Structure formats: C-alpha cells, structure tokens
C-alpha cells in the first residue's frame, strides 16, 4: 500500500499494468478528491518502455511512486496557496496581540527559534486573549463573536479588514480594563487559523531541536467563537454547546501545514530490493547473506520509514544483536550493517531517499575484536610441506604459497586458464573472464594474470579442472578445501590464528622481504587496495614485471625432504 503523504489515513489507489500499443504502462486512477488538480484526467500513466511483462513488473513500483509523488506534489502546491495566506494572517495576529499588550522581545516565528521562547510567547498570548474574553460583558461577547466570524471569513479569502469589520469593531465598547485595539486583537487571535499555526510551529521547532513534540488537540470553538455556514453567513445564535451537522457548515481554518512524510517504509521496499538481489547478485552465498541481513534488521528494529533511518538506528540494532549474543565478532557485525547499507544504497539509486545514512559508520570498537590471520614462519612452511599430502592437496598448497592466490581462486583453476605461450613464454594463470567461462572471484581487483614461479613444478598439461574439490552452490570450492585440509594443517601448525589464508599472508610478506613494491605485490595477489594496479596487469604493468618480482622468491620449502 502507498500512503498519501498529505493524509496518513488515506492510501492511494493500487497501480496496475496495462499493455497499450506494444508497451506496458503503469496506470493509477486519480482519486475523486484530487480530480480538480488534474483536469480531464481520470488516470495517470507512465510507460515502462518495454513490451516484456517481467521487465515491466520490475519497474512498476518505481513508476507508480512517481505518480504518487505527483499526487503529493499537487496537493502541497494547492495547500501552500492557502498556507501562505493563513501564515500571514496568523503571524500578524500573534505579533499584533503581543504588541498591543506591550510584550517585549517578540522572537522570530521560525522553527529554528529557541523552542522555549516560542512556547513562552504562546502562553503569554493565550493569557492576554483569555483575559479579554473573561472580562467582556455579554454584549461585548456577542460583538466579539460576530467580529471573530467576520475575521475568519476574511482570513480564509485572503482579505484584510473591511468596512464591516470596522463597523462591528466600533460597536465594542472602548474602556477599562481593555482598549478596543486589545479586544479586536484578541478576537483575531482566538481563531482556528492561529491555533493551527501555533501547533505547526511548535511541533516543527521541537523536531528541529530534538525535543519532545507537544500535543495539540483539535481546535474547539468557545462560546465566543462563531460558526460560518456554507453560504458564508455567520450563525451567532447557536445555543451554547450545540453542534451543527458537519455538512451544514465549513470551518474557516488555516489548513495545517503539511510536514512531508516519506511514504516508503522498510517493509514496502523489501520486495523490490530482494528481487534486485536475486537478479543481480551472482554468488549464492552473498545472495543469502543479503536477504538474511535485510530481513533481520526488519525483525529486530521494526518497520521504520526509510527516510527516518539514521546512524543511531545502526548502533541500536547492533546493541540488540549483541544483547542476544555478546560473542559476535566485529567483522560479523560489520557484515550485518553492510547488508542494511546495501538496501539503503538501493533506495538512493531509486531516488527514494537522498543519502545513505549507514555509510561511513565508525564501528571499530563494536563487538568482539576479529581474530587476525598470521603468516607462517619458514620453519612452519617446511613442516607443512614435509607432510605426506596426497598429490592434489600438495599441488594446491604449493600454488597458494607461491602465487598468493585465494583458496577459492586456486581451487577453481582449469587447464584452459593456464598459459605458457604468450608473454615471452612465461607461465601464468588467468582469472579473467573468457567467452566460454565467467570466472567467480571476490571483487573486480581479483580479475588478473598470475605469474607462476619458474621453480614450481606442475603436472602434465591436461584439460578441465586442476582439482576435484566439490563446489558449493556458488560454484566455489573453498569450503570443501577447508574441510579437507584444515584439520591436518592445524595438526602440523596448531596456532589459532594460522590457517589456509595464512599462505596468502606469507606470500605477501615474502615479497616485501625481497623489496617487491607494494603496487606489484598487490597486482600479483589481486588485492582490493590496488584495483587500478590490477587493471594494469594486462595493460601498463605487464606479466614480465610481475614474473621478475616473483622469481626472486625462494620457494625451496615446497620441495619435500626425507
């Protein structure tokens, strides 16, 4: 459902898809009460630009929102015309009353003005008006009632004081305890337009200044307040306490200022976001995590308005998650926030919100510190490769230790991605996509050419995969590699911070020890910090440069002894 931002109790008609002249259109009926804003238009339509129904459905929500936004805009434009007139009347009435009662230091009537100053001014003005009414005689009350109604009628039409106003005002006795000017100012002040203006102003000021919002009940007419009939006549003989049927009169009130509210809630965006994730996220594991994190935030924090989500909600969310499991790591919690951040990023792309408030959050100290992976020492490397591994595991570990490749990259290697005929006969693996294969890698920087150390022995060239580790639903074998190798690896090197990822750390350290520049180091390993360098692997930085660097490394430890 799409909430009307101008009236929270009303929802706009549901959008529908119609196929017209070879294209799908999103169509929304114009509500009856808005048709005067859209002359001769029963429906508004937006073209999806496609004849494919599935594609059209993916665009339906965003295009429908454009129409709903236009409904809101037209109402706000109409409302602003009335508001500008009413604002002028209300501010003039407030300042006029305060002035004739010699109020000092009248503050600016703006939401940015100190809330307490505004509230104090309202209390003073309310007291001034009440004093006038309470001190009035019966005849004066009748005259004030009539004057009040005329003033309201003129306020609604945008007129200033007329002769009739002056005539009625002249009948009000001018004497103690209050002057005629004070009595007229009280009549102008005790109108619904002024009451609504105060309500809007103080609520906006409270929001602006992060204070509790005041509560205002609907305006209630007093015995001195007139009722204006639909024909514009003032009914001044209504018995006290008796109300007329709503259809017989119309209130002469300043329409409440519209404080725009974001129509989209978290739950309303979820379906289309999940559809985007399902369509555009290639890795099943990442897809599952995005869906889980998006839903978890909703479950924990409730259905927040998208535009209202602030950094504080991220911290509140993590506090609640940690309350259930204090052992969650900093990395895991950052991933949780990244999942919500991705949804908000989508909302920015769709122009639902102006900015992603979950970007650049400082989460360094949240949760349990993530355990760092340490590199192997040379003695540990020798012990690892002295073990009687099966041929497949030994080859994999040798490639990891001498190239810096990730387990998921090495485990998926095929002989078709091995090359020894180009680049001066240098052997290398490629993780670049081909016409026949889209290579699954961690990020864009991982797309690269990886030179092979001249001393590394490879099996005789064949076809298909180098390894037969089972792939998961993402098409990656890193999980199975861990199951196969990690228990034995930990029996050789029983250090909690050393694992299969330690080979990559070890390789990078070996390069630094040989004074290999960081740019070349990152280019070989496909490190995300140097995406530009990665792109240069097959452009500005050639394979020979990287091969020269990798050839400096002593990899004698991969040779089993004994």
Give the amount of beta strand, in percent: 5-15%
What gyration radius follows from the Cα positions, in whole Å? 37 Å
Question: What is the share of helical residues?
Answer: 40-55%
Oligomer: single chain
What count of helical segments does DSSP give? Answer: 18
Please give the largest β-sheet: 3 strands, antiparallel
| Beta-strand segment tally | 10
SSE arrangement, N to C: EEEEEHHHHHHEEHHHHHHHEEEHHHHH
Judging from the principal axes of the Cα atoms, what is the shape?
A: elongated
Mean pLDDT, as a whole number?
A: 78
Short description:
With 562 residues, the chain is mainly alpha-helical. It has three domains: 1-261, no CATH class; 266-349; 378-558, hpI Integrase, Chain A (Orthogonal Bundle).
Spell out the blueprint of helices and strands.
Blueprint: E1 3-4, E2 7-11, E3 16-20, E4 23-29, E5 43-47, H1 53-100, H2 115-135, H3 138-157, H4 163-171, H5 180-189, H6 192-208, E6 227-228, E7 234-235, H7 266-280, H8 284-301, H9 311-324, H10 330-349, H11 378-386, H12 391-403, H13 407-411, E8 418-419, E9 428-430, E10 449-451, H14 478-492, H15 502-513, H16 518-525, H17 531-535, H18 543-551
Antiparallel strand pairs: 1-2, 3-4, 4-5, 6-7, 8-9, 9-10
Helix pairs in contact: 1-5, 1-6, 2-5, 2-6, 3-4, 3-5, 7-8, 8-10, 12-15, 15-16
């Amino acid at each position: 459902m799409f909430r009307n931002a101008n009236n929270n109790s009303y929802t706009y008609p549901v959008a529908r898809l119609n196929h017209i002249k070879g294209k799908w259109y999103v169509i929304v009926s114009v509500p009856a009460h808005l048709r005067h804003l859209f002359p001769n238009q029963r429906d508004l339509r937006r073209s999806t630009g496609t004849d494919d129904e599935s594609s059209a459905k993916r665009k339906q929500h965003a295009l429908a929102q454009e129409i709903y936004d236009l409904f809101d805009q037209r109402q706000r434009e109409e409302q602003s015309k009335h508001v500008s007139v009413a604002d002028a009347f209300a501010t003039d009435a407030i300042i006029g009353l305060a002035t004739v009662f010699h109020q000092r230091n009248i503050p600016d009537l703006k939401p940015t003005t100190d809330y307490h100053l505004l509230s104090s001014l309202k209390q003073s003005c309310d007291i001034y008006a009440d004093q006038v009414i309470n001190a009035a005689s019966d005849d004066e009350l009748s005259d004030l009632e009539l004057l009040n109604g005329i003033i309201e009628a003129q306020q609604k039409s945008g007129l200033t004081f007329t002769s009739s106003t002056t005539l009625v005002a002249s009948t009000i006795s001018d004497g103690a305890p209050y002057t005629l000017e004070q009595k007229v100012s009280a009549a102008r002040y005790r109108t619904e337009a002024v009451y609504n203006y105060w309500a809007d102003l103080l609520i906006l000021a409270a929001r602006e200044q992060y204070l509790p919002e005041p509560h205002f009940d609907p305006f209630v007419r007093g015995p001195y307040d007139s009722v204006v009939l639909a024909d514009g006549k003032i009914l001044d003989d209504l018995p006290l306490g008796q109300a007329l049927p709503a259809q017989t009169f119309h209130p002469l009130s300043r329409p409440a200022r519209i404080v725009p509210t974001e129509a989209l809630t978290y739950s309303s965006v979820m379906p289309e976001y999940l559809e985007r994730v399902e369509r555009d996220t290639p890795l099943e594991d990442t897809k599952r995590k995005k869906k889980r994190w998006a839903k978890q935030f909703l479950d924990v924090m409730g259905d927040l308005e998208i535009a209202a989500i602030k950094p504080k909600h991220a911290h509140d969310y993590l506090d609640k998650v940690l309350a259930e499991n204090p052992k969650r790591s900093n990395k895991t919690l950052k991933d949780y926030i990244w999942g919500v951040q991705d949804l908000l990023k989508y909302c920015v792309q769709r122009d639902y919100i102006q900015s992603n408030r979950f970007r650049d959050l400082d989460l360094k100290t949240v949760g349990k510190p993530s355990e760092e992976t340490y590199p192997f020492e040379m003695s540990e490397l020798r012990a690892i490769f002295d073990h009687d591994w099966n041929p497949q595991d030994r080859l994999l570990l040798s490639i990891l230790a001498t190239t810096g490749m990730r387990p998921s990259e090495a485990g998926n290697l095929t002989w078709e991605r091995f090359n020894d005929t180009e680049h001066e006969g240098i052997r290398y693996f490629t993780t670049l996509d081909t016409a026949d294969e889209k290579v699954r890698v961690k990020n864009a920087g991982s797309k690269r050419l990886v030179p092979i150390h001249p001393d590394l022995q490879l099996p005789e060239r064949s076809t298909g995969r180098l390894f037969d580790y089972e792939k998961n639903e993402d098409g990656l074998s890193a999980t199975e590699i861990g199951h196969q190798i990690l228990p034995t690896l930990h029996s050789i090197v029983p250090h909690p911070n050393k694992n299969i990822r330690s080979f990559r750390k070890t390789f990078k350290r070996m390069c630094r020890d040989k004074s290999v520049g960081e740019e070349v180091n990152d280019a070989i390993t496909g490190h995300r910090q140097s995406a530009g360098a990665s792109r240069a692997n097959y452009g500005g930085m050639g394979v020979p440069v990287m091969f020269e660097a990798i050839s400096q490394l002593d990899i004698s430890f991969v040779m089993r002894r004994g």
